[in-house]
Amino acid sequence: RRRWLWLAMTDRVWIPVADADAWALATTVDDRDGDLVTLRRDGTDHTVQMTRAELEALPAAVLDEAVDDLTALSSVHDATMLDTLRRRHAADEIFTSIGNVVISVNPFKPVPSCTPDSIARLSQQGEAAPPHVARVASVAYRKMTGDDGSPPRAQSILISGESGAGKTESCKLCLMALASVSGSSQGATEGAVESALLLEAFGNAKTVYNDNSSRFGKWTAVFFDASRRIVACHAEAFLLEKPRVVGTGPGERSYHIFYQMLAGANEEERRGGSPPRSRSPD
After folding, report:
1. Quick one: which of 107, 119, 223, 241 could link to 215 by a disulfide (CB 3.0–4.6 Å)?
2. What is the largest CA-CA distance in the chain?
3. CA 65, CA 67: separation in Å to the nearest integer?
4. Rounded to two decimals, what is the model's pTM?
5. Contacts of 231 (CB under 8 A, 6+ apart)
6. Which ranges of 73-205 does DSSP label H, i.e. alpha helix?
7. What are the φ and ψ backbone dihedral angles of 238, each rounded to 5 degrees?
8. Distance (Å, rounded) from C-alpha 177 to C-alpha 124?
9. How far is CA 98 from its chain centroid?
10. CB atoms within 10 A of CB 87
11. What confidence tens digit (pLDDT) does each residue in 160-191 have?
12. Which residues touch 57 (CB under 8 Å, ≥6 apart)?
């Protein structure tokens, strides 16, 4: 039997859009044309027509509060998840949970939740802390030591994302949190953080998306002594994008180290060597 969805003039749905928003709210403005319905995108004069069947398949505009765990949404859909992340990001709440996973949206600016004092406070709260990489590190530490009541086991934290997503900064925050929750001095992880600068010189480059894009993977091991304090860190690079050494695409550069060496060299050193073929540092 054929089903009809009759909408009032105030009904709103999420519609897919071909811009950075991906999904946008739209309101029904005309549903009198037989099987066709006209909707207007909120805040614009743009209208779109679709069949009632297409409209019925769209997610309803359920606007939950900006929950900190996407599994708590009353309507779980790409549109509602993106809307939640967007609203939290606008409020400088850059971390959101989805179960045991933490989603981080790069703010490209300092935020209060990532200061050393905030990291120290959040790392002591464990699972009671709001979504944050410090909570992930704290929970992993407690599982490693058995403080959570489970048998002690080695733990791994996987940080992934696109270029410019903030993976390197998230790793630094994790190290800060581990130093705090274990009662170790911040100097215990300074070597790993400072070595990252050296790795970045040889493995980071300017791309069309990011001026400081990591073109390699990094594995960092943190070692603890019998008192459960950090005694050493080990960083290892892998999967370096080697073709970038000899050629780059339009608007991109080779690895930072080449430009840094040229910038630090005097005239005699520059004349005596053969600088790599690449774009000007400018």
Report:
1. 241
2. 86
3. 6
4. 0.79
5. 188, 223, 224, 225
6. 78-90, 116-125, 133-145, 167-181, 187-203
7. -150, 165
8. 9
9. 13
10. 14
11. 998 888 888 899 899 999 999 999 876 777 77
12. none
